[in-house]
Design goal:
16 helices, ABC transporter involved in vitamin B12 uptake, BtuC
Length: about 325
C-alpha cells in the first residue's frame, strides 16, 4: 500500500486552476464570450431587430432551459469520468410518469407538487440505476446508459400507449408559466440550477471528490474516497436534473410524451464539451457549460431567424464540436 501511495501516477489530481477561476479558466471563458458575442453580431447583422428584440432574447433563454439544466448535471458526470446517453429518454419517461391519470388525480386531491416530485423521483431513480450499473456492475458507461436509453424510452411508450398525455393541472401550469418581473419561472429555475451546480462543483468536498474520481479513480480510492458510491451520486444528480428538465418541457408543451427529449443527449454533451469539460474526466466547468449552452441556443436562433434548414444547423454544430475537441486535445498535450 505504501509503495502505491508513493507512485506519482497514483497522486490524487488537483483541479486545474481554470476550474478555480485562474488564468487558464479566464482565458477559456473569454474565448467562449467572444464566440457568443460574434454570434450575436451575426444575428443583429442578418436578422436586425428580430434578433435584438427583448422578446427574442427571452425566447433564447427559454429555449436554453431544458438543455441547460441537463447540461449542468452532465458536467458532473463527465468531470467524474463518465458519460450518459440516456438523458433524453429519462426526460421523456419522467414527463410521461408525471402526467399519467393517476398522478394527476393525486395532484388534484393533494397539490400540484405531486407532479413535481413524481418527475424528479423518476429521473433520480433512473440516474441511480445508471450509477449502479456503471459503479458496481462495472459496465462501461456508454453501454449502460445506452441500455437505459432504450429501456426508458420503451417504458415511456408503454405507459403512455404511444399517445400524448395532456397536463390538465392548472396550478402547475400557472406556476411554471408565470413571469415575475418579466422573467419566466423556467429561466429562474435554470439560473438556480446553474448557481447551485457551480457552488457544488467548486466550493464543496463533493466537487473536489468529483475532480479526483475523474482524474485518477485509483488514486482517489487510495486517498479514502468511496469511488463507487460517489459515481452513483453523480449519475443520481444527473437524473435529478433530467427530472427538472422534464418539468420545464411539460410546462412549455402542457404534455407528457415518449417523444420528448429526442436527441437531447447530443446537444447536452456538445454544450458541455464546448464549455471546456474534458471528455476524459478530471476537469469540468459549470460556467463554461453555461456559455456552451448559450452558444448553441443562440446559433439555433440565428439560423431559424434566417430560415436555414435544420440540416445546416446540425452541420454547423458538428463542426463546432470537432473544433472544440481538437482544441481540448492540444491543451491536454501541452500539460507537463
Amino acid at each position: 500500500m505504501s509503495a502505491s501511495l508513493k507512485d506519482p501516477s497514483l497522486t490524487v489530481p488537483t483541479p486545474p486552476k481554470g476550474d478555480r477561476g485562474g488564468s487558464v479558466g479566464i482565458a477559456r471563458n473569454l474565448g467562449l464570450v467572444i464566440a457568443l458575442v460574434i454570434l450575436c453580431v451575426v444575428g443583429v447583422v442578418t436578422a436586425g431587430e428580430r434578433f435584438a428584440s427583448t422578446d427574442n432574447i427571452v425566447t433564447i433563454l427559454r429555449l436554453a432551459t431544458v438543455t441547460g439544466v441537463v447540461a449542468i448535471g452532465m458536467t458532473f458526470v463527465i468531470t467524474g469520468g463518465g458519460i450518459d446517453l440516456s438523458v433524453g429518454a429519462i426526460v421523456a419517461l419522467a414527463s410521461v410518469w408525471a402526467t399519467t391519470t393517476g398522478t394527476q388525480a393525486m395532484a388534484d386531491d393533494v397539490h400540484w407538487i405531486v407532479i413535481v416530485l413524481s418527475a424528479i423521483l423518476v429521473g433520480t431513480a433512473c440516474g441511480v440505476i445508471n450509477g449502479l450499473l456503471v459503479a458496481y456492475g462495472r459496465i462501461v458507461p456508454f453501454v449502460a446508459t445506452l441500455a437505459m436509453l432504450a429501456s426508458a424510452r420503451a417504458l415511456a411508450e408503454l405507459i403512455a400507449d404511444r399517445k400524448t398525455q395532456i397536463l390538465r393541472n392548472q396550478g402547475f401550469t400557472d406556476f411554471f408559466g408565470a413571469e415575475p418581473l418579466g422573467i419566466p419561472v423556467i429561466v429562474i429555475i435554470f439560473a438556480l440550477v446553474t448557481v447551485g451546480g457551480w457552488f457544488l462543483l467548486n466550493r464543496t468536498t463533493f466537487g473536489r471528490r468529483t475532480f479526483a474520481v475523474g482524474g485518477n479513480p485509483e488514486a482517489a480510492r487510495l486517498a479514502g474516497i468511496k469511488v463507487q458510491r460517489h459515481t452513483v451520486y453523480l449519475y443520481a444528480l444527473l437524473g435529478m436534473t433530467c427530472g427538472i428538465a422534464a418539468l420545464i418541457v411539460m410546462s412549455r408543451t402542457t404534455t407528457g410524451s415518449s417523444t420528448h427529449g429526442t436527441l437531447l443527449e447530443l446537444d447536452v454533451i456538445a454544450a458541455v464539451v464546448i464549455g471546456g469539460t474534458l471528455l476524459s474526466g478530471g476537469r469540468g466547468t459549470v460556467v463554461g457549460t453555461l456559455f456552451g449552452v448559450l452558444i448553441f441556443t443562440t446559433l439555433t436562433n440565428v439560423f431559424t431567424l434566417n430560415n436555414l434548414s435544420t440540416s445546416t444547423q446540425n452541420v454547423a454544430k458538428g463542426v463546432i464540436i470537432v473544433i472544440a475537441v481538437l482544441l481540448q486535445q492540444r491543451i491536454a498535450n501541452r500539460k507537463p
